[in-house]
Amino acid sequence: MHDQTSPSSVQRASPDHDPACPVSIHDLTVAYHRRPVLWDIDYAGPEGQLIGIVGPNGAGKSTLIKACLNLVPIASGSVSFYGKPYRQQRRLVGYVPQRESVDWDFPASVLDVVTMGRYGRLPWCLPPTREDRRVALHCLEQVGMADYARRQISRLSGGQQQRVFLARALAQDARIYFMDEPFAGVDAATETAIVGILRELRARGRTVLIVHHDLQTVAEYFNHVILLNMRIIAAGPTAQVFTQENLQKTYGGRLTLLDKAAQAMALNGNR
Amino acid sequence: MCPAFRQRERDEWHLMSPRARALAAIGMAGVLWCGATVVASEPGRSITDTSIRWPTWPELARALALRDYNTRVVVLGTALLGVAAGVVGTFAYLRRRALMGDALSHATLPGIAIVFLLTGAKSMPLLLMGATISGVLGVLAVLGMRRMPRIKEDAAIGIVLSVFFGFGMVLFGLIQQMQTGNEAGLAGFIYGKAAAMVAGDARLIGVVAAVVVAACAALFKEFRVICFDQEYASSQGFRVPLIDLIMMGLVVMTTVVGLQAVGLILIVALLIIPAAAARFWTDDLLVMVALSGLFGGMSSLIGATLSAIVSGLPTGAMIVLCAGVFFFFSMLIAPRRGVIASAARHWLLRRRVAYQHLLRALAEYEETHGEGAAIGRKDLFSVRSWSAAQVRRTLARAVRSGDLAVLADGSVRLTQRGRVEALRILRNHRLWELYLIRHADVAPSHVDRDADEVEHVLSEAIVRDLERALDEVARVPPSPHVREPAP
């Protein structure tokens, strides 16, 4: 197994992680089959902001989110939420995975899926209560899907599926949200609904990190941005960071040596 | 609380009641059968030890009523096994781990052989323990191989399954060479021989079935969330590997106690087929689990009874065939997902499309020939290519429903009622054509065929969106393309 909690990383974690900071990432490196996809990420997310994560394909945007949520093994470094590791803060962290990551033909209704947002609060073996379903229905209402509560999830459009995932995350009532491409391939109604939800989350002081691929809308949707291409190119308020020059650095050709080194590591590992 | 919300709550309960009804019906069916067999039963002569022959009528009646002690043991034992396999199989099926059960069951063979070689006796607990150990080793081998870069899960399962099975068969060959005369019953583990079951075996199955069903009920929430979305479950703090381990453990228990009745080659069928059959009937996981348990139980019960009546028919094979029948009929007659239902839907849609095409053809004809113009039946074939039979049938339907009127010379024209509908369809067609030309940059010569498909499925909401996008409110826009003359 990968050693995620080696003594060195735990010791190093404590002095660097500010308990007031919703997400702080320290010296994070992630590798798939020994091939590094993220190098030396350092980031401290500001509270109560909508933070867009932007970069070309293969830049490691989804991987960054998954590494924060312990879904992929971390080669080195650490992530903390309000100064504590993820294991102790799960209740505070919500996750909206990519829509394509699940089989939508699963036998479940819309309400069943949204109610899963409450599962994390329930102890082993206890089923969700009426109250949990009530909260789930309320969250469905917020994303404009209350009329679909009883519908089978395969009979939804892509945008509606995305809104169901969003409602599931809302049902958890987290303080920090990670969303993986919520705007990918959705209809106009869904886009409006998501933007509305994001603004409301911000108004309630929640911090949201969103992987985003449409450069046109970055400035409109997010007030903070992380430009990512295997490492952080720039991060900060959108007005300062989202510049032509930084975009050029992010998208204009990969760092070829970084790529070559990663490939060499992968080859040596598999031999 | 706002009234709208309460209304929705009421709706929710109203909508939940069909599920409750379905569950109750499933439960009642099971209880009734068990009750009937218990009432009808009385101690008597065993028929499971007779030689291969067809039963006489009294014997048949006795077997069906489960009057013989041995038959009762066999049939009830396997039925409980079927319920357990159906229930846990649903989760394994949804988790896409069903074939892992196949690797597992085949991998039990060397364990059985080794225990027999070591002890030289057929002690059931020891044999099952050996089966469990080597089965679990097989599963671990699959999981281990899957972690290697270039081996996919199907290959890993295939390798483990065949190598363990081959090894077991070699050991069986060795055992036969020794000729202790004691190995006779071992082949039953491969093909299943329910007749060899004794009361103790059935009790063991009963206990395991109870544990499996209770565990699935208790861990319903956990199983559901990891089957649907493993990563999300993990992000919510569910210990996915542990839950998987419990699920696999339940599969192992069910498989091992079922070896004797069904045999290791076919036991995987009891995990997969009832679940796959149940999936046709419902979109509710709880109902699916219950149905799958019922299908598994019923196929085991019927299969075991048949093999008890006609001694010589292998139990495992009969059970699997019964499960196959359940699956086949589910696939055929299930509402919505079944083959017949979807064929019927398709047929109705084609009928509606043909009908609307006819009306639209007449509306277009009126555009060029003036309102109320009648078209001869022969001319219908110049405006569209369709078969004579199709035109005849569609015309007859249109006349019956009053959209068309037949004139004395056999030609047809739209009635007032038909014209309203025909213009609506024509308008949808034209709106879609215009939309394609203006907003999707499709060449005018191509839009007719596209709109042909789409006009029938445009909902009112989409039509309103089209009107807004095109600034067309009331009228039927003229055709944007000129029908190309034949060369």
The gist of it:
The complex is a heterodimer of chains A (about 270) and B (about 475). Chain A has helices at about 5-15, 60-70, 85-90, 110-120, 130-140, 160-170, 190-205, 215-220, 240, 245-250, 255-270, and strands at about 25-30, 35-45, 50-55, 75-80, 85, 95, 175-180, 205-210, 225-230, 230-235.
Oligomer: heterodimer
Biggest interface pair, counts: A-B, 42 and 31 residues
Proportion of strand residues of chain B: under 5%
What count of structural domains of chain A? 1
Radius of gyration of chain B over all CA atoms, rounded? 32 Å
Main sheet strand line-up of chain A = 6-7-8-3-9-10
| Portion in beta strands of chain A | 15-25%
Mean pLDDT of chain B: 83
Query: What is the SS-derived class of chain A?
Result: alpha/beta
Helical fraction of chain A equals: 40-55%
Structure commentary:
The complex is a heterodimer of chains A (271) and B (487). Chain A has 271 residues and is α/β, with parallel strands linked by helices. Chain A is built from 11 helices and 10 strands. Chain A has helices at residues 7-16, 61-68, 86-89, 110-119, 130-142, 158-172, 188-203, 215-221, 238-241, 244-251, 256-270, and strands at 23-32, 35-45, 50-54, 74-81, 84-85, 93-96, 176-180, 207-212, 224-228, 232-237. Chain A has a 6-stranded mixed beta sheet, with helices on both faces. Chain A has a 4-stranded antiparallel beta sheet with strand order 2-1-4-5, sandwiched between helices. In chain A, helix 6 (158-172) runs parallel beside helix 7. The model of chain A is unreliable at 1-15 (pLDDT under 50). Chain B is mainly α and 487 residues long. Chain B folds into 2 domains: 21-333, Orthogonal Bundle (ABC transporter involved in vitamin B12 uptake, BtuC), CATH 1.10.3470.10; 342-470, Winged helix-like DNA-binding domain superfamily/Winged helix DNA-binding domain (Arc Repressor Mutant, subunit A), CATH 1.10.10.10. Chain B has 20 helices and 2 strands. In chain B, strand 1 and strand 2 (412-414) form a beta hairpin. Chain B is elongated. Chain B starts with a helix and ends in a 17-residue tail after the last helix. The A-B interface holds A 33, 66, 69-71, 90-91, 93, 95, 97, 101-103, 106-109, 111-113, 116, 119-120, 122, 124-128, 133-134, 137-138, 141, 146, 149-150, 152, 154, 168, 172, 270 and B 5, 8-9, 12, 15, 94, 149, 218-222, 224-225, 227-229, 231-238, 279, 282-285, 288.
